[in-house]
Amino acid sequence: MDISEFEKNSLSNIILRSSYIPTTNDNDTDKSFFLGIDEAGRGPVLGPMVYSAFFCDENQLSILKDLGCADSKQLTEESRSSIFAKYEQYKNYLGFILKVLSPHMISTCMLRRDKYNLNDMSHDAALELIQLVLDQGVNVKKIFVDTVGSPDTYANKIRARYPKIQITVSKKADSLYPIVSASSICAKVVRDQIVQNWQIHEFDDEKESIEYGSGYPNDPKTKQFLIESMDKIFGFPKFVRFSWSTASTIIDNKCIKVTWDDHENENTTSIIPTKKRKSEVVETTTTKTLFSYFSQKSVTKNDTGHRRISGSHFFRAAHLKPASFHCN
């Protein structure tokens, strides 16, 4: 799968599509399709979450059984990749659309003032993918979804949007319905590809060899990776979901605390905190204002030539450069 667009900007979500090409027979307008929805990467503290909508001609569903589609978690990585590659051979009968939710966007949404939790993100991703499939001209007859939260609540949410389509939402749908199994394979293979190819640009040469393990919070290797990859000023690289409790605890305990002023006053040496999360408040009456760390210093042109301006790896990963000021 071509993931180059996501690799160019891993801060944003992205939509990926298969090369589905409908046949041009006169009877094709009467074709109906089954659609399966599943995700991969919900639990890890590292990397993106990938949502998949997989559709297949109702009269060609036997293809999925012949390919060996089953719950992606029960298949080996080699088997998943092999099945995924074979989908291309049947692009006149089946296809998929994926939404990659970046770890940065997941965490940013979860921590914003009007909270946007993972369940709501999942539901909205599913609804968006259904609409994208319909917009592609696919006549969807039935939708099967692996549930997130209450199956009944989730099903009613989809039915409210698409009342003419038969909706089935259930637990373990990826092991019950081949169309969902096929979808889970897409999500898992593409997520694995993204994670394996992820370049952590915030790392210097010494940190590039750090192993991150499975990416799940309870994995000792993953825990060690979080500790070693953390920068006391900038926190974690974009690869990490910093809203996960495992990561946020490390930030609270290891990072330098910052007080964010709503109203800056350079002459103020004490701060009365406004409403902030506990992790944002430094209980002190002598904290410098934030702007004081960025005050302008007089630098002559001759001085700048001898200064070593390299900046943090986190700055370079974000394509930022240190600012320098010149006196007339």
TrEMBL record:
Entry keyword set = Endonuclease, Hydrolase, Metal-binding, Nuclease
Per the UniProt record, one Pfam family is RNase_HII
Instruction: Provide any one GO MF term from the record.
Output: RNA-DNA hybrid ribonuclease activity
EC numbers:
3.1.26.4
Gene Ontology cellular-component annotations? ribonuclease H2 complex
- Domain RNase H type-2 intervals: 32-256
Q: Which cofactor does it need?
A: Mg(2+); Mn(2+)
Please tell me whether the keyword Cell inner membrane is annotated for this protein: no
User: Among its keywords, does the record have Hydrolase?
Assistant: yes
Q: Which family does it belong to?
A: Belongs to the RNase HII family. Eukaryotic subfamily.
Function in brief: Catalytic subunit of RNase HII, an endonuclease that specifically degrades the RNA of RNA:DNA hybrids. Participates in DNA replication, possibly by mediating the removal of lagging-strand Okazaki fragment RNA primers during DNA replication. Mediates the excision of single ribonucleotides from DNA:RNA duplexes.
- The entry's protein name is Ribonuclease
